[in-house]
Write a structure and sequence with these properties.
235 residues, globular, 31% helix, 6 helices, single chain, alpha/beta
Length: 235
């Protein structure tokens, strides 16, 4: 049994670069497809750290497995173990903490600039980051801040891009886990959902320009998050 649990919700939102980081660190991990019922009956006392990945659904959808997952996340929060949420995963953490998740009037997509919020510079989650940096985005919902949360990051199109809650939980609105292959796959399969006439969305040309360099930089952003998450698990 692995001490690291990764919750996924659809086949095209895998752990991505997180899996590479864990493999390089020789950390065993288990991936469960929550939407397929694989979380049912799982021993919630086992994991020492949990990552929650993305998905196209909304946390407000009437899907029974979402309620199961939110209850599991609330259990993990009570256990005070390290948690990191990516996009839908960040929204699920917000909802588990009692915050609202709402539909935005537009979709934010592409490589969007994130800025540290006032007071966020001292956060250990951000110690590896400059004041501003890009992250890949693709979302139409946004979380509010739970009571007691520390806002960390914002973008021009989404004020709440990340928050910390306590010292072991990080919720992200963006996708630090992206690889070149995932970006290409998403744009090949789902480009019909985009509308580059919206100022909140980049064009395909913009998203794919200098993609290897953009992903290398994003990998460094992600690795700082993941290293801190893992340190907390074995502290």
């Amino acid at each position: 049994m692995s001490d690291i649990l990764i919750l996924t919700h659809i086949d095209y939102c895998p752990p991505g670069h997180l899996a590479r980081v864990l493999d390089q660190a020789q950390c065993d991990f288990r991936v469960l497809r929550v939407d397929l019922g694989e979380l049912d009956g799982f021993d919630l006392e086992r994991p020492r750290a949990v990552a929650i990945m993305g998905g196209p659904m909304s946390v407000n959808d009437d899907l029974p497995w979402l309620a199961t997952e939110i209850a599991a996340l609330q259990h993990f929060i009570r256990r005070d173990i390290p948690l990191i949420g990516h996009c839908l995963g960040g929204q699920l953490l917000a909802k588990a903490l009692g915050a609202e998740v709402r539909r935005m009037p537009y979709t934010e997509s592409g490589w969007q600039p994130l800025k540290k919020t006032v007071g966020a510079a001292s956060s250990p989650w951000l110690s590896h980051l400059p004041a501003e940096f890009p992250m890949f985005q693709w979302h139409g919902d946004s979380f509010a801040l739970p009571a007691g949360a520390q806002p960390l990051l914002s973008s021009p199109w989404c004020a709440n891009q990340a928050f910390a809650w306590g010292d072991k939980l990080l919720a992200l609105q963006g996708h630090p886990e992206m690889t070149e292959e995932l970006v290409q796959q998403w744009l090949d399969d789902w480009r019909h959902l985009l509308d580059e006439r919206q100022p909140s969305q980049q064009s395909l040309v913009q998203m794919l320009a200098e993609l290897p360099a953009k992903v290398r930089a994003l990998n460094q952003v992600a690795e700082g998050f993941y290293r801190h998450w893992l340190r907390l698990a074995w502290r």
